[in-house]
Each structure stands twice: as C-alpha cells, then as structure tokens.
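User: Quick sanity check before I run a bigger batch. Here is a single chain. Can you write out its predicted 3D structure?
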Amino acid sequence: MTTLGIIGAGHIGSQVARAALSAGYGVVIANSRGPETLTGLIAELGPTARAATAAEAGQAGDVVIVAVPLSALDQIPVEPLAGKIVLDTNNYYHERDGHIEALDAGETTTSQMLQQHLPTSKVVKAFNHIKAPDITTDIAPAGAPDRRALAVSSDHPEAAAFATTFYDEIGFDTVEVGPLSESWRVERDRPAYVVRQTAAELRENLEAADRLP
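Assistant: Done. Predicted structure follows.
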C-alpha cells in the first residue's frame, strides 16, 4: 500500500485524505496543533489513517502533500521529505499571508518557493484550483465526456506523472501546465481558478491567463 503523508489537516488536506483512502492509499496526517487534536478526523477516516507530527508524516509518506498556508511554508520539515514527490496545494492570498514582493511582481510562484525550501524534493503543483468539497464529489470515471480536469505543474516529470495517476484514480482528468515557473496560470484570479472545467476548457483557460491580472 502506498502511503501519503499529509502536512496540513484543513479543508484541502482532509479532503485529499478522504480521496486517497477511497483509492486504496494509506494516510498519515499532521496539523500544527499536534496529533492529539486529530482524534475526530482519524475516527472518521478509519483504520488505514493515523495522526502524526509534520516530521513523522513526512517521514512515513511515500509521497507527501503540503496543504498549509503560505506563511507556514518555512515550517515544512526538509530532511524527511528528501528525495520524495511533494504535492503542493498552496495559493497566495496577500490578505492572509501579507504581501510578498516577488509574487506581486510575478518573479516567482508559490510552488517555486516550496521547491526552493525543499531542494532535494520533487515538487508538483496540484489541487490548488479546486474547492475542497469538490475533491470528493465532483468526480467521474475515466472516459466520461464531461469529466473535470485539474492541472499539474512540475520541474520533475516523475512528479507530474504521479499526480496525473493520482488524479485519475480519484476521478479527474489532468492537464500538464509545464514547469513550476508556469504554475501561476492556475493561481488565484486566473480563468482556471476554482471553476469546473473539462480538459479542453482547462487548456483554453490556461492559454487565456495573464501573469499579472
């Protein structure tokens, strides 16, 4: 059984956990307040999920999901994630995170920031442009004509390939955006952000995106 380590047990992290468990993965999940605060969630998720610290979740996961606010990026443990694929769900909200000059100027992306923080990991942007409840409800089998599509972006082909497989297993098509430097195309205020779209529609929305909307 492949285990996902999930760092961040909020709306996105907990929904990805539910989706992963439904697809046959194991889950080790952490939040900032300690494993003892996740008793209710673990009881709901069932016997193939357990709570841990962030470092323990990173160590236990064959693949790791980072689902924390951007302001907590520097708290993600580095060494336990070394060599691993890391799915980054983050978005930049200056109202929450404060203004970050390099992001405001379009000089970097949130996923590039995480990749810089985790230089020995293989970061892939995923799950950032879908509302949390839709992760387990707006799904369809492969080949469905109106199947929803989600984007992936990575500098590492094997990371993009894993995210593509995982999306398919839980009920989504995939469109590859390209390297992390292009991941801004699915970030906040762009046409592809938190709207339901097929693969063809997502490609159109990616093409229509402006760097500084």
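The longest strand covers residues 149-154.

User: Great, the batch can go ahead then.
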